[in-house]
Amino acid sequence: MSSKFPYGPPKHKVALLGASGGIGQPLTLLLKLNPMISELAFYDIKQAATPVVGVAADVSHINTPSVVKGYAGDEEIEACLTGCSTVVITAGVPRKPGMTRDDLFKINAKIVKGLAEACAKYCPKAMILIITNPVNSTVPIVSEVFKKAGVYDARRIVGVTTLDVLRANTFVAEKSGADAKIQDVPVVGGHAGETIVALLSQAQPRLPELSQADIEALDKHVQDAGTEVVEAKGGAGSATLSMAYAAAKCCEAVLMGLSGVKQVHCAYVNVKDIKIAGVETEYFAGKVEFGPSGVHGMLPLPANITDYEKKRIQQAVAKLKGDIKTGVEFANSA
Fold first, then answer.
1. What is the rounded distance in angstroms from the CA atom of residue 68 to the CA atom of residue 2?
2. In a 3-state reduction of DSSP, which class is residue 22?
3. Domain 162-238+263-326 falls in which CATH fold?
């Protein structure tokens, strides 16, 4: 392989749905920098505040190999999706102060369902990376849509939970004194509030000795980090820049896997259909191995997690079951 392109020449067409939004715009920039991508297809509704063709024109001036094109409206989504190896879904409304991820469901579920139907029709074998919240429910929606269309493959539908890991790594590094870039904290469960479980006992480098009160406070900090951003922005949006970076990291791991370089990266997937043992719910986030066929498996939960972490996982699983049911019922309601 060329030293210029360590994973081979650019070959992946990647579509970003919701490219004009708060997450979408910075993500367009980050995806343009990925050397594995040969073509970028940016899509949004025609009424987007910033026209998607403008976003595409702007990003296309960056001197990297990928070709960029913008698509707007229902009549152009077929051209956008055709030939994609990977689709990233960010479309939807952001969370506002006082709004939970559950509050987002009524609006975002309909948006995600419509986009999933288009993906199932025009790029049924693509990797689908879902960012639109509430991820605990929107991932099951996409899965049910693909099942209805007869093109379902659990290995190719992924909820992006990378931001929870980045936050845990950042907050733990502040305590451990380690470089945040090398700090590694597994985050399991889901992608909302109490379903986010940072396995602090498994941090590498390890945390210094902390009291139980400090551990619980750090755990809560990771859970509530998204709300902190929403409140700090005073109603002007939710986490967009950090989410875009997290999405780019997840997309990079997926594309490397598709290119034959296996990667381990935390994500939310259907553990039941992929036949991942040891998890008592249909969907769960954990350390996933990505390869040429998508999700190849998930690393088992460490045997030496603490009693507190076991309790937190039980709480997460109980909440996840309700979130999953909500998504499945919505997808099958019409």
1. 23
2. coil
3. L-2-Hydroxyisocaproate Dehydrogenase; Chain A, domain 2 (3.90.110)
Q: The whole model's pTM is what?
A: 0.95
Taking the CA atoms of residue 14, residue 102, residue 187 and residue 242 in that order, the dihedral angle to the nearest 10 degrees is 50
Rounded to an integer, what is the distance from CA 117 to the centroid of its chain?
A: 19
Pair 190, 198: CB distance under 8 Å: no
pLDDT digits (tens, 9 = 90+) for 2-61: 446 677 788 999 999 999 999 999 999 999 999 999 999 999 999 888 999 999 999 999
pLDDT at 235: 77
pLDDT band at 88 (very low <50, low <70, confident <90, very high): very high
What kind of fold does domain 12-161 have according to CATH?
Rossmann fold (3.40.50)
Q: From residue 151, give the alpha-carbon distance in Å to each of 18, 39, 72, 155, 255.
A: 23, 24, 25, 12, 21
Least Cα distance to 308 among 199, 174, 224, 175 occurs for: 199
Beta strand 263-270 pairing with 196-198? unpaired
Catalytic residues: 191
d(Cα 82, Cα 119) in Å, to the nearest integer?
A: 9
Q: How far apart are CA 271 and CA 298, in angstroms?
A: 8
Q: Range(s) for CATH 3.90.110.10 in the chain?
A: 162-238+263-326
Which regions of the chain carry the CATH code 3.40.50.720?
Answer: 12-161
- Per-residue pLDDT band for 99 (boundaries 50, 70, 90) equals low
Distance between CA atoms of 160 and 106, rounded to whole angstroms?
20
Which residues have C-beta within 8 Å of that of residue 110, sequence separation ≥ 6? none
